[in-house]
């Protein structure tokens, strides 16, 4: 389930009333959808489940997991494999969308938070306010690839199809989209290209509202948290962003998870991680070579309190997700709607090293 934008002021930490209400409504939705936990069930200790009592164990003794509905087949595959080595553990999935994952983890009624996107700033702030620390992020796969016919493409930058620009480095993208980049702002197309076809016109920037949702998360993750340019025009939907770029030869826009076939007249702009690196798009080849700088991942967020190790069963679960059989479960989704891909060997090893640290206080 994909949610649209929600209102938060431009600061990463400030929570506006409407965005706060969305967090509370997500939490309320989760709370009323999941049966209450009995004291007896919560106090059980199953295969090193957790101490103190875990609120994510339901009245039947099953472990509750709340999160992204697009990951259902992946989680069911993991659970089937996991049951072979942990037959006493059972899971109950409540998968209504990534926006329910962190509220459920924050309240303690989900053992972990499976998500098809990065945590949004307000959810991170609410978790930190509740616990005094931030959730740990373990990446388990790539969340999709494209462009591909009839399916959505992962987060990408688009220009008008008449634009001759071959691509941008991530630094150049920051110089275009935000203000205050140390190497200077870029405001005209001729600053990016010596192509005689490129007119000396101002760059027109289109995107979604910087309100605590996907645009804010994008700015914090890829644009050094700098404020968007004064030329940035926020539009209500990704479709409107794409239509604006299609109608404007001097436009550039960024959106996440959009089928660009629905809006002719745009072109996905290749990006490079740094100067001298090859341009890349979110294709299978570029993602699995770790070349695309805006890669979207499949995540499992967990609650790891400082000074306390994570439950042994959860460490085993994460290791399974990152094992060859676990990655094979993800690979089965490659040509389906989600388009999930297993991690590269280098990325998988980096995540396994993070998992190993979870057993330490």
Automatic annotation (TrEMBL):
Span of domain PBP: 59-323
Pfam families: PBP_like_2 (PF12849)
InterPro entries reported for this sequence: PBP_domain, Phosphate_ABC_transporter
Gene3D superfamilies from the UniProt entry: Periplasmic binding protein-like II
Record keywords, A-Z: Signal
Residue ranges of coiled coil: none
Keyword Methyltransferase recorded: no
Keyword presence, Membrane: no
PANTHER family: PERIPLASMIC PHOSPHATE BINDING COMPONENT OF PHOSPHATE ABC TRANSPORTER, PHOSPHATE-BINDING PROTEIN PSTS
Protein's UniProt name: Phosphate ABC transporter substrate-binding protein, PhoT family
